[in-house]
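Subject: design request, 129 residues
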């Protein structure tokens, strides 16, 4: 009788573990990594932020920016949610009126400045005068 109850208890515990493992992953988006490849071809330094269009998230965040000197290329690596839409905003350092993409604060609309987080890297994004 004890052996039968132990086997039954083990089966119930295994079934409960399987149900909990299945449910705990529900609603969580898979993460992915993507690299934005950017080149500053403007004669002045440029500041860049990357904005999720699907949630309130900014890279690098914390009131910081990615900084590219004139002529500099940079790979900006992000951890993002699989399928997330991310747009870049860039502007001349000290001159937020000269911008690319969604500009400072993600306030402008753009064409061809957004990418889906699917891993890999973007083509080189050239910021030109």
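Subject: RE: design request

Done. Sequence follows.
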């Amino acid at each position: 009788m004890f052996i039968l109850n132990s086997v039954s208890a083990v089966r119930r515990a295994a079934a409960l573990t399987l149900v909990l493992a299945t449910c705990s992953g529900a609603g969580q988006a898979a993460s992915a990594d993507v690299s934005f490849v950017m080149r500053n071809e403007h004669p002045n330094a440029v500041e860049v932020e990357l904005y999720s269009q699907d949630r309130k998230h900014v890279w690098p965040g914390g009131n910081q920016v990615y900084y590219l000197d004139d002529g500099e290329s940079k790979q900006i690596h992000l951890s993002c949610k699989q399928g997330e839409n991310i747009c870049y905003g860039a502007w001349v350092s000290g001159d937020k009126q000269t911008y690319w993409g969604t500009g400072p604060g993600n306030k402008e609309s753009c064409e061809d400045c957004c990418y889906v987080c699917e891993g890999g890297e973007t083509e080189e994004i050239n910021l030109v005068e």
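Residues 31-128 form a domain with the Immunoglobulin-like fold (CATH 2.60.40).
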